[in-house]
Design a protein that fits this description.
disordered C terminus; mainly alpha; 11 helices
Length: 266
């Protein structure tokens, strides 16, 4: 009798794990959809002007569904900010001591430009938070972000010491990359107006990306490596048979300070 009961429990365990995994995937997908809708509403209306009702309408779900995943507007706002910062910082993974400086920096710039193209609303929400004095993000900026910049700066300083690139100020190099890439999201109307373009897509976006990569690499004394860095970046696109795959958003915004750290920051 006991053996039979144990066998039934053992047989049910895989089904329970499968069901739990499926439920977890559904939850992550729902949270990601809500966060993407919130990006659009917060970018358009700002934190004060946005409402949970407007976000629900943007997401195409009932307002109660929003509150099931995010109890307050502030919690959802922080999820947008932390999700965007996580995706930006995850792209620094390639800046490692054993990496080629031109390829690592070129790849980072291209990844940041791809995020500016695919996640412009989230970038504008983040910019708005910085302009407000970063009331929701101060602990993260002074904690995880400062630690990451220190680690990546140490890598860049190592490259400089080895004569692998020109002397630059590492934190300010990162600030320059952030400013140059995020401009194409945060100030997109200005860029389009000056260029007389309705949108920047295809060859126009590639031209902008190539320009920023060239500017950064030449400023680091890596201009002679431009062709190699560009060829490395283009290889995945050719293998895939066309244009680059847009960067996908993190499915569930991470908890930074006070929870699990963002992945891929080291």
């Amino acid at each position: 009798m006991m053996a039979a009961a144990s066998a039934l429990v053992a047989a049910a365990a895989p089904r329970q794990r499968t069901a739990a995994a499926a439920a977890g995937r559904i939850r992550l997908a729902n949270e990601a959809a809500i966060v993407r809708a919130a990006e659009a509403v917060f970018a358009r209306d700002g934190f004060r002007g946005a409402s949970m009702a407007a976000i629900a309408a943007q997401a195409g779900v009932a307002k109660a569904n929003i509150h099931y995943y995010f109890r307050t507007k502030q919690q959802l706002y922080r999820a947008v900010l932390e999700g965007m910062l996580h995706d930006w910082l995850a792209e620094t993974d390639g800046i490692r001591a054993d990496a080629d400086p031109a390829q690592a920096l070129g790849a980072y710039v291209r990844a940041k430009m791809a995020l500016a193209q695919t996640r412009p609303e989230a970038s504008r929400v983040f910019a708005g938070e910085m302009l407000r004095g970063a009331p929701e993000m101060q602990n993260i900026l002074r904690g995880e972000l400062r630690e990451l910049v220190a680690r990546k700066s140490a890598v860049i300083e190592g490259w400089i010491a080895q004569g692998r690139m020109a002397p630059v100020d590492p934190p300010h190099l990162l600030f320059t990359i952030w400013a140059a890439t995020q401009t194409y999201a945060d100030f997109a109307p200005q860029v389009r107006a000056v260029l007389g373009a309705r949108s920047l897509r295809g060859a126009a976006w590639q031209r902008a990306t190539d320009h920023v990569v060239s500017l950064v690499l030449r400023g680091c004394g890596l201009g002679d490596r431009l062709e190699a860095a560009s060829a490395t970046a283009a290889a995945p696109r050719r293998a895939a048979g066309g244009s680059p795959t847009p960067a996908a958003p993190h499915p569930s915004p991470p908890r930074l300070r006070g929870g699990s750290k963002t992945s891929g920051q080291g």
